[in-house]
Amino acid sequence: MKRYSPERKEAVLTKLLPPHNRCVTDVAKEERISEQTLYNWLKKLKQTGKAVPGNKGASDKWSAESKLAIVSETMSLSEKELSRYCREKGLYPEQIASWKAACLQGFSDSQSQNQAVLQQTRADKKQIKSLKAELREKEKALAETAALLVLRKKLRAFYGEEPEDE
Length: 166
Hints:
The protein has two domains: about 5-90; about 90-160. The chain is built from six helices and no strands. The protein has helices spanning about 5-15, 25-30, 35-45, 65-75, 80-90, 95-160. The termini are far apart.
């Protein structure tokens, strides 16, 4: 297995990433590196949180992690810096704006979901409490009925009465 220097890796990955977005097979032939190695490098780069395009290089094929990384990278950029960043990455500012809106929508959804879960938990606890109280009442009634039946049987045995068919 060949070892490649970090500088060479970086140079090869630069060819695969925006703005170049060259095909993996072309770069593999040109650099005489296996395609699988290049895919592994891209995968590792993506796992570090870098914005890496999908298989075809179209920005709509990018993973959610990559989109979130881009949104966080561009959060503090001015309009001019954002335009330059978009040109380098092969993106449009509108795409980043829509990704940001989707991220914020996801956060607000999770917040409303958390609130709904909290309300449901409260309602469940209240219902459990009322069911436990009802169960205690029924257990007391059952115990009382059993005691009455036992007393009735003992009373009949004491007076020598025959039990009737019940």
